[in-house]
Structures are given as C-alpha cells and as structure tokens.
Structure prediction request, 398 residues.
Amino acid sequence: MTSPPIAATGYLTVLRVPGLRAVFAAHAVSMVGTVAAQVALSILVFDRTGSPLLSALVLACSFLPYALGGTLLSSIADRYPARPLLVTCDLLSAGCIAVMLIPDLPVPALLGLLLLTGLIAPIFAGARSASLTQLLPAELFPTGRSLLRAISQITVLSGFALGAVAVAAVGPTWLLALDVVTFALSALLIRFGTPSTPAPGTGGNTLQASREGLRYLFTTPKVRNLLLLTWAAPAFSAVPDGLAVAYAAQTGAAASAAGALFTGYAAGTVLGELVGTRLAPRTRRRLLVPLLLATQLPAVVFVFTPSVASAALLLAVSGCGHAFNQAVDPMILAAADPAYRGRLFTVQTSGMMTVQGLTIALAGAVGTFVRPNLTIAFAGVLGVLTVLVLARKVVSAN
Prediction:
C-alpha cells in the first residue's frame, strides 16, 4: 500500500471534505467564547470578592470536572449519534453561561455552573473526535485532529490577551454574553452544516458502560500505552508554563515577561502541527521518538537558567514536538475497537487535562522550595525517561 501524496494530507484537503468546514468553524467560535469567558469570569469573581484565591478557582473549575466527566460519563459519546449529542452539549453549555448573566448571582453559583460546563466539555470533545473517524478517511484523521489542536492553540495564544482587552472595553458581563452566542452559533453550525453519523451503540446504563469502557481501555495493552503516552508528554512539558511567572522573576525580568514563555510554547505547537501535516505517514512514524524527546529535552536546558528570550525559544521547540500526536493517532485507530472510540477520545481528552493540572499544581508546590529553573529541569529529566519507556512499549507493539 503506497502512502498518499504529501499534498493530500494538508489542512485544505481536510476542509474540502463535506461538512468538515462547519466542524472546524464551530470549534473555532466555541473556543473563542470559552477562552473569553474564562478571562471574564476570573475578573468578575475578583471584582466581586477581591480574592485572588477565588479568582484562581475559575481556572481550577475549568480543569477539575474533566476527570469526572471523562470517566463516569464517557459512554455518552458512544451511546448517541454525534450530531445531536454535540448540539445538545453546546446548548447546555450556552444555558449554563446564560444563567451566569443573572445580576448578583452568588460566586459559589457561578463556580458551580462553570463546573457543569466542565463536565460537558470532555463528552463534547470525545464525540467530536469519534465523529471525525467516520467523516474522514483513515489517512486524513491525524490531520483532522491536528487542525483541532492548532485552532485551540491559536485561540489560547490570542484569546487571553484579547479577552483582557475586551473586558476593559465592554466589561465581563458582555464578554460572558458573547460566550452564550458562540455556543449557540457552534450548535447551529453543527446542526445544519455537518452530516449525520451513526452511534456505535453501547449496552447497559451510562455508568456501567463507562466503567466497561475504562476496563477495556486499560486492560488492552496497546491502547493503554498509547493513552499513557499522550498524557505523559504534555503533563511534563506543561511544567514550564505553570512556573512561567516564577521563572521570569528568577531571571530578574518583569512578571509580564512570562507571556513570552506562553507565546513561545503555543506558537511552537502550531508550527509543529503545520509542518507535521506536510509529512508522509511513514515519516511521521519514524519521527515519533525524536518528536517525543523534543517535547521534554528543552526543559532540561533550564538548569543553566537561560534568559527569557532563550527560554521562549526552548519552549517553542518543545511545542513543535507535540506533532508526535500525528504519528500516534493512526496507531490509536488501529488498536482500538471502533465501538469504544467515543469513550477512548473522551478519556484521552479528560486524562490529558487532568494530568496537566496535577503536574502544574505539583510543580508549583515544589517550586516554592526549589528554584523554578531546577524544578523545570527536573521535570524535563523525568519527562525524558517516562516518554522513552512508554515509546519503547508503543513501538515494539506496533
């Protein structure tokens, strides 16, 4: 079997597939609204309470529900056809944000509604990725998921800065109202712009089917090792982001210089995804281990306390390495039973978000006792060892 021409694996080829433009447009507009809402809600909570802790809980409440929604409710992504499920998720999220607009709503209620949207998010992500396996031919699936990741990084790269400007211009309440509109627009794009795909179908109730899915995923060695690999690489490479402000202060730079570290990582990720889509599938697979090492080795260099500019370049290299996912995605498709794809991608997304949150929190705790550059470098060493062990298992099994 010959590999498809390189030109046939790019983003434009994916966007020419019927219904896919609507899928990615919906992802883009909902991501814009989500990032803007996180900024708006953080500022709104701080304005009402004056508490940095409660303001920080906004981001925590955005991460924490992934663990719960991605495990107990993962089977929902396999039980129902993707299009109506995605529309329902968007409308429920829009409803939660709309309730936040009630004047003087207590802060605990705001955080509770944010937790609800966090429970919905991994189900949406799992169902969307599973639907891509039906809408795209197998050789284009990695490119489709790559485009989702690139859109997310571009949105994060620009969204937090623009969100802060927008809050200053129109206020947090109007920015939350924008999020309601973006979720509604996403629902319309999916409902009227994408083709219907059948549900694989699962037996038993939701919790039982979710437990069955977890058992399958973690007792099937090929699938388990691939999942762990997609969690481990971003978990360790996220540590410099978590310590960016502390590291900037250690170098004597202003706290605002930490933005260069966030920008470097996100820009590198987008560049890596773009270049990766231009490579033949066999080339991506050969580059799996080098790309994995690229995600971790730059952190080791922090032992020398590079300047903020040099650190941003190192994190750009680390971001580029995450194109390894384009080699892993075809392996996941080949290893997993199609009946479990919704649960697989839901658990993958929720696990990745959860472990990143945990490692960032742990790095922050360690960074209060150990210099930030040494904490980052130690995480890099652990990351190298971990991804090499998992990569060896993945390569030998494939």
Notes: The chain has a mean pLDDT of 87.
